[in-house]
Amino acid sequence: MLKRRIIPIELLLDGRLVKTVGFDSCRDVGDPLKSSLVYSNQDADELILLNIGRERRDTRETVDYLRAIAGKCFMPLAVGGGVRSVDDAALLFAAGADKVIVNSAAYGDPGLISAITDRWGSQSLVVSMDVMQRADGAHLLFSDCGRKAEAINPLAHMLFALAAGAGELLVNSIQNDGVMTGYDLDIIRLLRPLCHVPLIICGGAGNYQHLKDAFDLGVNAVACGSLFNFGDNNPLRAKSFLKNYDVPLKRI
Known about the structure:
Helix content: 25-40%
Low-confidence stretches: none
Structural class: alpha/beta
Radius of gyration: 16 Å
Distance between the termini: 16 Å
Number of domains: 1
Number of helices: 10
Number of strands: 12
Largest sheet: 8 strands, parallel, barrel
Order of helices and strands: EEEHEHEHEHHEEEHEHEHEHH
């Protein structure tokens, strides 16, 4: 059985860490290197770094943060934001990324997923999907940091990504982002039965029970932003809570 993972997620914008609500309303929450060091010391299983600059998002900017973090932190790093080519992926791997995350480019360049996995292996690539749930329960996909609606539905896009070789799937809920009322459990129920790779859910965690709710539905990892940014919460305490429910954790 794959061990469940607790993954802090850090959003990078103009040299700072920010926290968003609904993919908007950015709030400064600190320095990338200092925060990453804290998570490394708190037994985080992995760290997700996403450059969310909408106007000038470039992997070369991300590399500057990544090199500093990779040189001092001892946990796997999954890095995304503006990955549009194999060359972009190569820059991030050379700077210390263990995995790259592709989102928007996977819609416009269907061959990008297989191009990356053919060179570095499926374990090197996480495909990210930003979803929003309509009032009728249906889910829509958005790219470009939530600004562009995509015609394909989440299930079809997931199956395409898996067929192309994606090693993991990161699903981020737009309407749940930053509100701390729990993950989008409906999207987990939709995707989990047909997802044969590790599934990471993101967007909405406000307490440790929310993590358990997601694990109970079969996700392999939970990504947390606000939960660890605000209040006296951290990965070690989350693992202590989940251990009481026999959740099979990666480390404790």
